[in-house]
Every structure is written in C-alpha cells, then in structure tokens.
C-alpha cells in the first residue's frame, strides 16, 4: 500500500482522511504521507522514502523516534496489563518528578491530551476564582475545547476557520481576546470587565501561529495585571513544558504562573496531558474540591511509563537542552544567512529548540504580523523541501521541533536543501 492509495481509502472512512486536520496537507496542497516508522531524527513513509523529521509528532518526540530506553520501558510495562482504573506506582513517580521540577506546581492531575489539560485548567480557574471570563490571545491555540476555539491558532488558523461551528455564542462570550505582546490590550479587557475575569491563558512562547517569542516584560506584565485583578495566570506549556528547559517557560523567563498545563513531552508520544498548580488551587479539584474532572484512562500506566522514562532521561542529562538549542540556533543562523544572500523577504523566529521561518519581511511579533506571511510561498517551500528529504510542518503557522537525535549533519543537510530550494523559489 502506498500513501496515495491509503489516503483514498482513508478519505472514505475518516473526515478528510485524517484524525487531526493539519495532517491532511490541505494548506500546502498534495496528499499526506503515511508514515511507517521513525528512527532517531528520521521518519520513513510507506512509499519507501526517508525524511529528516522536524515535526517530531508536533513536539513530544524530544529525544528522537524509537528511543531504546523508552521502548524498553513500555515493553516491560505492557505485560502487567494495559489499564486498571486504579492507582499505580508509576503515576506517583511521574507526579513527584513533575512537581519537584516545575516552579509553582505542588500538585498535578494527569489527563489524556493537551486539550483536556486546558479545558480542566480553565474550569479550575473559574471554580477557584468564582468568575467566568477568560482572556486568551489571538493566534494562540489551546486545544479544541469549546471556550478556546475563539481566534485560535494552529489548524484553526491554517484552515482560515478561527471560530468553529458548534461553539455556542454563550460559551464564546466568556472568552475575551487580546493581542499577543500587547499588554495594553490586556489591561483594556481587565478595565472593561472589572471583577469578571477568572484568568489569562497564554502560550508563554506562542508556537501555533508559527513561533513568536514573548517580548521583554510582556509575561511579567501579565503577572502584575493578574495579581492586581485577582485573576489567575495560566501558562499553557503543552509545547514549552520540559522543552525550553526542564522547568519550562516559568523557569526560562523567571515568571510565576498559577496554573500550568502540559502535554506532548510529558507523554513521549503517548496520549498524556496534565495540569498543575499551587496546592491551594489544586485542592479545588475533585475528589478534594468542587471542580469536577475525571478520566477512565487518565494516568494510564503505559503512557505514564513512557512519559516518566523520557522525563527522567531529560532530568539526568541537562546537556540535552544545550544540544537541541544549539542545533536550533545553527538552523536560525543558516536560514537568516540564506535569506540575506538571496535577498528574500524572510523572518526567522527561534526560542530554544523551536524555530519558524516566515515568508514576510515584517518582524513577526503577533498574529497580525504572522498573517503577513506569504503562505503560497510556504507551500512551495514545503513541497520542494519534502522532495529534498526534509519533513516540515504542512503549514506556515507551526513550529519546527528539534530533537536530541538530530545531528549536525542533519542541520547541514537541511540548510543545504533550504538554500537550494529558496534559490529556486527566487527564480520562479
Ligand atoms: N495547547 C497548546 C499550546 C498546543 O500546542 C496544543 C496542541 N498542539 C494543545 C494545547 C492541544 O493539545 P492536544 O492536541 O494534545 O489536545
């Protein structure tokens, strides 16, 4: 079976042939590749091609595909049974590791996805404060929970459908939208909705409208505004958690959050999310408190084993972060050099091991600027890079994820390919 014939079959039985919209390659044209295997920094498709992978399952695969220790740990776990719906030791180990490493997280609740983590965190912020409204930022994506599908990033942005049908007006009206990196837009919302705002949710590094770093003082400004207005600051660290550094964005930027959400890296590729915060906030969660949240498969022993093993490796080898950040820096510098030499309108953003190339000459600091990117050009770039054996996100508005298994050679090959492709695009 090749990718094209699998896609034809898939389209008949799955909406768009996929289980998550951006996988469908709709934004870049062409058919999605069906992946058969990943090994280190490479993935192979069912057509027999190999690619250097910069999607890395959209972030979880920070150590590379098919990591031997993670694979072995899962293998030994599965023979004890897949799920019990009762507590297991590995959940405690994972929770202890997370709470001892992430600032302001005294307690944590495991869930099954980033979406669930955010939905629960938002409910908790409302339950804890007794207020209804939440401020989010235009272009930030926080999963597909109803209240977060307002001016959302990622697939919702790529498909030009920022507001989903099926989200009721009643739900959407409690989500207020501010402009990323614009503290005054947040201040205004607090003024206009006095004593009504439960919390502010943000991707501390935006990575779902492409990568956009927070400007200096922006996150501290949010902290101050939340304190002043008795609102909670929620850091959605589904992407940044255990990626920017082991303690995530709070440690990286030295800013305290009240609730933190996790996903991706904490599951190592298994379906895991989590949310945590200070003890007095987390004690509001059932069965201790009145904020209800539950899950048949939450804290699943196999998923916990995979995640715990990955986190343990990350915690014991801090060099990992130096390596992935340095590789990402090389990419950033290489892209910038190529853009300069070719005099192409390109803007490159990077934070840690997250990189985005935008086809615009504007400084990309918020959603509006991200949208100035020439997505047609990105589609061409994506497809030519694929031909060169480089697998990028099939959308302008996503990040490149660098893993510990990427090598200097991978980076050189990627930059060689990019120079060639960008040179050709200039000719077109
Ligand atoms: N928050 C952020 C910041 C994300 O990037 C994502 C997914 N990319 C989510 C939440 C939702 O996570 P999931 O897809 O696991 O539901």
Automatic annotation (TrEMBL):
<dbReference type="InterPro" id="IPR005814">
    <property type="entry name" value="Aminotrans_3"/>
</dbReference>
<keyword id="KW-0627">Porphyrin biosynthesis</keyword>
<dbReference type="GO" id="GO:0005737">
    <property type="term" value="C:cytoplasm"/>
</dbReference>
<comment type="similarity">
    <text>Belongs to the class-III pyridoxal-phosphate-dependent aminotransferase family. HemL subfamily.</text>
</comment>
<dbReference type="GO" id="GO:0042286">
    <property type="term" value="F:glutamate-1-semialdehyde 2,1-aminomutase activity"/>
</dbReference>
<dbReference type="InterPro" id="IPR004639">
    <property type="entry name" value="4pyrrol_synth_GluAld_NH2Trfase"/>
</dbReference>
<comment type="subunit">
    <text>Homodimer.</text>
</comment>
<dbReference type="InterPro" id="IPR015424">
    <property type="entry name" value="PyrdxlP-dep_Trfase"/>
</dbReference>
<keyword id="KW-0663">Pyridoxal phosphate</keyword>
<dbReference type="InterPro" id="IPR015422">
    <property type="entry name" value="PyrdxlP-dep_Trfase_small"/>
</dbReference>
<comment type="pathway">
    <text>Porphyrin-containing compound metabolism; protoporphyrin-IX biosynthesis; 5-aminolevulinate from L-glutamyl-tRNA(Glu): step 2/2.</text>
</comment>
<keyword id="KW-0963">Cytoplasm</keyword>
<dbReference type="GO" id="GO:0006782">
    <property type="term" value="P:protoporphyrinogen IX biosynthetic process"/>
</dbReference>
<dbReference type="GO" id="GO:0008483">
    <property type="term" value="F:transaminase activity"/>
</dbReference>
<dbReference type="InterPro" id="IPR015421">
    <property type="entry name" value="PyrdxlP-dep_Trfase_major"/>
</dbReference>
<keyword id="KW-0413">Isomerase</keyword>
<feature type="modified residue" description="N6-(pyridoxal phosphate)lysine">
    <location>
        <position position="264"/>
    </location>
</feature>
<protein>
    <recommendedName>
        <fullName>Glutamate-1-semialdehyde 2,1-aminomutase</fullName>
        <ecNumber>5.4.3.8</ecNumber>
    </recommendedName>
</protein>
<dbReference type="Pfam" id="PF00202">
    <property type="entry name" value="Aminotran_3"/>
</dbReference>
<dbReference type="GO" id="GO:0030170">
    <property type="term" value="F:pyridoxal phosphate binding"/>
</dbReference>
């Amino acid at each position: 079976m090749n990718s094209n014939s699998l896609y034809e079959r898939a389209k008949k039985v799955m909406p768009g042939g996929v289980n998550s919209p951006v996988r469908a390659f709709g934004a870049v044209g062409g058919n999605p590749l069906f992946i058969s295997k990943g090994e280190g920094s490479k993935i192979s498709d069912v057509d027999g091609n190999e690619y250097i992978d910069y999607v890395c399952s959209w972030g979880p695969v920070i150590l590379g595909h098919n990591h031997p220790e993670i694979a072995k740990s899962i293998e030994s776990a599965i023979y004890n049974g897949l799920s019990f719906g009762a507590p297991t030791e590995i959940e405690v180990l994972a929770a202890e590791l997370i709470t001892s490493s992430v600032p302001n997280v005294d307690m944590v609740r495991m869930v099954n996805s980033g979406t669930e983590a955010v939905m629960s965190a938002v409910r908790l912020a409302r339950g804890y404060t007794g207020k209804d409204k939440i401020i989010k930022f235009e272009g930030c994506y926080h999963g597909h929970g109803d209240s977060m599908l307002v001016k959302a990033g990622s697939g919702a942005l790529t498909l030009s459908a920022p507001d989903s049908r099926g989200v009721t007006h009643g739900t959407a009206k409690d989500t207020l939208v501010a402009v990323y990196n614009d503290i005054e837009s947040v201040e205004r919302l607090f003024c206009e909705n006095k004593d009504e705002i439960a919390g502010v949710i943000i991707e501390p590094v935006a990575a779902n409208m492409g990568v956009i770093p927070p400007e200096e003082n922006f996150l501290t400004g949010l902290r101050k505004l939340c304190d002043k207005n008795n609102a909670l600051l929620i850091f959605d660290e589904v992407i940044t958690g255990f990626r920017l550094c082991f303690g995530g964005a709070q440690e990286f930027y030295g800013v305290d959050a009240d609730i933190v959400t996790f996903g991706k890296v904490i599951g190592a590729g298994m379906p895991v999310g989590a949310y945590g915060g200070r003890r007095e906030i987390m004690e509001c969660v059932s069965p201790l408190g009145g904020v209800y949240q539950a899950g048949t498969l939450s804290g699943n022993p196999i998923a916990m084993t995979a995640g715990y093993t990955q986190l343990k490796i990350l915690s014991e080898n801090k060099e990992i972060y130096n390596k992935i950040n340095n590789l990402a820096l090389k990419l950033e510098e290489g892209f910038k050099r190529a853009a300069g030499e070719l005099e192409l309108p390109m803007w490159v953003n990077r934070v840690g091991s997250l990189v985005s190339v935008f086809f615009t000459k504007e400084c990309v600091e918020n959603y509006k600027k991200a949208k100035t990117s020439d997505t047609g050009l990105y589609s061409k770039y994506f497809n030519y890079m694929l031909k060169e054996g480089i697998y990028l996100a099939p959308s302008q508005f996503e990040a490149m994820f660098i893993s510990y298994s990427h090598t200097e050679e991978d980076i050189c090959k990627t930059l060689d390919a990019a120079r060639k492709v960008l040179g050709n695009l200039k000719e077109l």
